Amino acid sequence: MSPSQIIVLATPVFFVLIAIELAVGYKRQRNTYRLADAVSSISLGMLSQTSAVFTRLLRIGIYTALFEHVALWRSDAFWTSLPGWLLALVFYDFCYYWLHRMGHESAVLWAAHAVHHQSQDYNLSTALRQTSSGALLGWVFYVPMALAGVPPLVFAVVALVDLLYQFWVHTEQVGKLGWFDRWFCSPSNHRAHHAVNDAYLDKNYGGILIVWDRMFGTFKEEDDQDRCVYGTRGLLNSWDPLWANAQVYAGLAHDSWHARSWADKLRVWIKPPGWRPADLAARFPKPAFSMAQMTPYHPPMSRAVQWFALVQFTLMLAGVAAFLWRADSAPLAENAVWFATLLVAQWALGAVMQGRIGMLMALVLQSGALATATSALGFVQWHWVFKPLTMAIAILLVAASSYQLRGMVRFDSKTWVLLGAALVGSLAGDVFLMVEGFFIPGLVSFLIAHLFYVALFKTGQRWFPHRGALAATLGVGVAMYAFLWTGGLPAALRGPVAAYVLVIALMAAQAIGRASVLRDRAAVLVAVGAAFFMLSDSLLATHRFVSPLPWSQVWVLGTYYAAQACIVAGVLKAATAPDGLPVAAPVAAVANVTTCGPALRTEHTPHPQ
Question: Region 342-356: what's the mean pLDDT?
Fold first, then answer.
């Protein structure tokens, strides 16, 4: 049984214990859970486990290679005896102490470990909040075990035991435990470790044994008079799983790039977290830390969004369990496709809880990811469901958004009609292209869709305001058409394909020109979508007429759905800009128009007279 399968089997136990902790908290009137934070933490745990399918080689693979070639003493009989197992567990915990300590004392290691500390709540869901990049450097700290001849199987088992032990210590419902606290990592000891209070900062690193901290001067007892405040001093303030993993790395990359000396560029990564050279601190000052800034991140969620999050979370949990159960025996490419699909789903859910996108937009992204995966992996029946479903949801999103926004000062029904028509044309094209022998109807449907997009992007703008963009897109179109012609484009299709290439090039030119005039994020998003459309169709044509591309459906459909999502999101973003609000209406009223939740306006507000 693989480590991933063991985690899957342990998952129900985790959730039973979480349910017990939640019930105890409610009974004591000391609930420590918030829905979005718990979902975010467990989602990061899912991401950590799914990404470990690809990074496990760095830990187990390198360890095994070192064991096989440079172990100083080999005695499997000893290490698989009871004393050997116990010694290996203590040995592992000792190495873990130093990895954990360096994870707080070296910036590049903190960049990975910070994910576990970002939650401002402290409960059993926090235990599941794990990094996805820890394996990149963490394996170094276990080299002594390989040199000592601890077999890889023993190493893997004691590593899992050490990890599972630490689950139960992430709770505020268990108080101090007397003598146990003096020897072992306990809830009280670990609460102090997670706190950002000055007295507790960078203390109590032990995984199972706290004696390492007592030996090396890093122990701090929890003080009932100094209540623990949780999180990181550089607050995350996001439910985005990708940003949670990238936040500290991004800050270090920024500082390293802007540091003037080469030595400082390196020191930024190696020195303790927060260290910055004087010249950099002067040019890019950061406010000093204050406990007053540790207010919980808690963007409001409507009841509909809360139920949506629960259902989505349950489905994702099932999907991750299925993925992990067979990941070790599945081909790498198949794992990569499902991993990307799950990642899109997790990002979309975080964005909904954060109010960045609405529920329908999340469903568009998730359905598009599933349409791509099912096509690439040969699940034909499911592909026939998700491919048309994606555009159908997008059409519903546009219809719902236009209904919600009809009372805005700048409401323009033409915009929504053109966008809806373009999506209907795309839906027709999707369906036709799924049926053998209907390439021409599919091509015509998408050509009509692009004409609607051209008209949409022309609204309020002159024709092709950026002539350089027009020349560039036409040049790309001509080059692509020549490539297809010489690559074997059938004579009967040369005329229709030429017309299509011209229209999509004009569509992209109009979108890019529009962005050059408006110079806002919404217009840029639309232009990016148009560029993705050209890329997607180029890949499709290359695969169909010139030479088969490996995993073509991933690249073709992935860029296609990225194109549609960017265009729709850009139009929605422009429609909900503050200067488009009804008179006297707060910005928050339509800030998340795509959620269709209670926060939205439901009554029609007439234009001012």
Answer: 96
